[in-house]
User: What shape does this take?
Amino acid sequence: MLAKGYVVFDNPKGYDINIVGIRATQRVPDVFDDLLTVSWVDRVTGEWVSHMWNATTDCGLLAAEQSTIEGGPAFLAPGQYRSSHMIRKHQGKYDAVCQKWGMNLPVFRLGNVEDYGKTVDWKPSFTWFGNGTGINIHRAREQGVTPRVANWSAGCQVFEHAADFEAFMGICRAAKNIWGNSFTYTLIDEADLEPGGLGGMTADEDDVDGGTGPETD
Assistant: This one.
């Protein structure tokens, strides 16, 4: 983070949270193979607290195929986006950490959708745009584990496990009570990590059921 010139929030008052997505280098379409992390300095102990969960930072295959947006489906570009998000309703349904109204984020759009899903080497078909909206951080299924991304993400950052998302929201609400309803989101590539990448990182373990149910909102 610091090596890239990004701010690390470490106020000892507590819940000065860093929300960071880590995008896997081998980007397999429709798989929750990325990580979402939250970390902060504990007010009592002065020690760092961190949580890490399985998620996707990429557009789902079904969402890509169904996209009617000019330029193609969106993938958020890596970067740190200061005060870019707030807690509000995702699609008017439930609280999530959502991109603020009136703010655009830089995205890459996949022009050649036909190649998406056929190979992991689809990055060269990206085109950069500065008009990304609705890049929210939310869950997939309401309960349990979602088996594939499908159209749960059309550019959003999406949790694989519903219970993980609820834990994340509890932390964000605690932060909101202290610091107000404004959050910075940082997205980095696995290549930005120390040698070993995601292989040396383990997501939090929660008791969640496999569940069945709709894969779309």
About this structure: Confidence is low (pLDDT under 50) at residues 206-217. The first strand starts at residue 18 and ends at 23. The chain has two helices and eleven strands. The helical segments are 61-66, 162-179.
